[in-house]
Amino acid sequence: MDDAEAIFKALSDDDEAIRLEAVKKCINENSDWKSSYDSDGISPLMSAAMSGFHECVSVMIKAGADVDVCDWIEETALMYCFREDMIINPQNRLKCVRLLLDAGADIYLADRFGVNPLMAACDLCAVEW
Fold first, then answer.
1. What are 50-86's pLDDT values in tens digits?
2. Keyword annotations for this protein (predicted)?
3. Residue 19 belongs to a domain
4. Position 129 in a domain
5. Among candidate residues 73, 8, 64, the one with its CA nearest the CA of residue 36
6. What's the CA gap between 9 and 17, in Å, rounded?
7. Per-position DSSP letters for 35-93, written without gaps between them
8. Are the C-beta atoms of 54 and 95 separated by less than 8 Å?
9. Which residue positions in the chain have pLDDT lower than 70?
10. Is residue 30 part of a domain?
11. Which of 11, 69, 102, 103 is the most exposed place for a label (fewest CB within 10 A)?
């Protein structure tokens, strides 16, 4: 396994404490983790946010992750918090939203379809706009 894959393997661990320690280790040992993407074009921060791993999101932000980095369709980690195809850990995903917003994530940064995180949140919550 190369260094870029290590952080994604760490994020796949089911045990919260082991996952967090493995992510911290990857961050400390791999200076390229911020620019790594999985086979689907998802960054470690996006993966953690989508899964509601708020402790990992917090560690990545503190380690300098770019909160507005985009995937291939220009979605950010904040957008991944509102993906309706992945509604898991809603409370933890809200914690991720707060962490990302506190770190300066842009709620108006639209994907290639013109949808921004604010619109995605409204859509997920069935708010009409």
1. 989 999 999 999 999 999 999 999 999 999 998 766 5
2. ANK repeat, Repeat
3. yes
4. no
5. 8
6. 14
7. G---TTS--HHHHHHHHT-HHHHHHHHHTT--TT---TT---HHHHTT-GGG---HHHH
8. yes
9. 1-3, 84-87, 126-129
10. yes
11. 102
